Amino acid sequence: MNATAPQDPLDPRDRPARLTVGVVGAGRVGPALAASLQLAGHRPVAASGVSDESVRRAAAMLPDVPLMPPADVLARAELVLLTVPDDALPGLVEGLVETRAVRPGQLLVHTSGRYGIKVLEPALRAGALPLALHPAMTFTGTAVDVQRLAGCSFGVTAPEELRLAAEALVIEMGGEPEWIEEQNRPLYHAALALGANHLVTLVAQSMELLRTAGVSAPDRMLGPLLGAALDNALRSGDAALTGPVARGDAGTVAAHVAELRKHAPAAVAGYLAMARTTADRALAHGMLKPEFAEDLLGVLAEGDLR
């Protein structure tokens, strides 16, 4: 008997239920997700983008995919990614429904962290199948984003009957589905913004201060430190707290505040807020001794009054 080489089970051509994909909003997220779905065998067929940057991004990440108005994107696609800013999403959905662009049986997927599927209610009434798939990742708008989706967690919200479909799409993009209840979406998104968006602000501010202090390569100095701090925090939570606030070194904190007032007054409020929150958590976990906390909190209170 002649043996034949087994086919690769991951070959997109052998996968069932491949879909035509449209992107409404060619920002940083949409083209990356569409390109990832293309790797899984789905077929991007249309995208919409207004700015010159969006046009360039779509051309780079989705070559040969035509740009057209949103209504035309929906006319071509079985799976539509709505990848617009959070505040624009409700109006976009209502507009698409009012113009009868939404078709019964069409998968309508938004990537907003803030919203679940309730924001898609008008489209649901028009017969669409609503999904909320939010990748918990920061995007660059380049091909590297497709690689970073591997192992990325997605906040998933969908009707029970579409849960398997939603999770399958996430897995096809290389992600890990994490079920988020509708009522928990705003809190979920706030948690991510607190950890990721504010981290960028803190790191950028720290680099500016190091440059002011004469450090020629602040990124090189901070890289190992922040990498270790992040790893420790993810592994140990509050037990990873270190530094003058957690130790109760009130004199050092007072010196910090004085220097910040002199060289970077705009950073003082953020420093005081984070120091106070750190002190509260260190106290609650028994790391900051009460006898040291009194002087420390006094310094922070004085900082607010100046």
From TrEMBL:
Pfam families: DUF2520 (PF10728), Rossmann-like (PF10727). Gene3D superfamilies: NAD(P)-binding Rossmann-like Domain (3.40.50.720), ProC-like, C-terminal domain (1.10.1040.20). Transmembrane segments: none annotated. Residues 15-135 form the Putative oxidoreductase/dehydrogenase Rossmann-like domain. InterPro entries: 6-PGluconate_DH-like_C_sf, DUF2520, NAD(P)-bd_dom_sf, OxRdtase/DH_put_Rossmann_dom, TM1727-like_C_sf. Residues 152-277 form the DUF2520 domain. PANTHER family: CONSERVED HYPOTHETICAL ALANINE AND LEUCINE RICH PROTEIN. This is DUF2520 domain-containing protein.
